[in-house]
Automatic annotation (TrEMBL):
The chain crosses the membrane at residues 12-28, 48-66, 73-94, 106-123. It comes from the Archaea. Keywords: Membrane, Transmembrane, Transmembrane helix. The lineage of its organism: Archaea, Methanobacteriati, Methanobacteriota, Stenosarchaea group, Halobacteria. This is VanZ like family protein. It comes from Haloarchaeobius iranensis. PANTHER family: DOMAIN PROTEIN, PUTATIVE (AFU_ORTHOLOGUE AFUA_3G10980)-RELATED.
């Protein structure tokens, strides 16, 4: 494995790994209904918070993988994560024990924006630490 291959694996490995966890977790048969029905502050249902948090992490990891703080890289990262989120929703529409929801897709997209935005903020505040090209 060359140095470039190791660098790519280091950048993309966590994003791909977390994406796999999210996709598998979104498609398996859920174990019972022991989750809370409302999220923090009683504002949104708990599943929307779960979607948002999962895709916030994915957004940050994908933005990290792109490794640049330019607007084009941020938009590409958001596009990739939103595509994964809506792709999962499409897959759920054909899985008998899951249901697709545009609101879940919207929560995924909000999470993607928050994650990529958070990464951009952190990378711009300390570029030597986060951005290595």
């Amino acid at each position: 494995m060359t140095r470039l291959d190791r660098r790519r694996a280091w950048r993309w490995g966590p994003a791909v790994g977390w994406a796999a966890v999210v996709v598998v977790g979104s498609l398996v048969d859920p174990p019972g209904t022991a989750t809370a029905t409302t999220g923090p502050f009683g504002v949104l249902p708990a599943d929307k918070w779960q979607h948002g948090l999962a895709y916030t992490l994915l957004g940050g990891l994908v933005a990290r993988a792109f490794g640049r703080t330019a607007l084009r890289a941020a938009l590409a990262a958001v596009a990739v994560v939103v595509a994964v989120g809506f792709g999962v929703e499409l897959l759920q529409s054909v899985v008998p024990w899951r249901t697709a929801s545009l609101l879940d897709g919207a929560a995924n997209a909000v999470g993607a924006l928050v994650g990529v935005g958070g990464w951009q903020f952190a990378a711009k505040r300390s570029p030597g630490r986060w951005e290595r090209s």
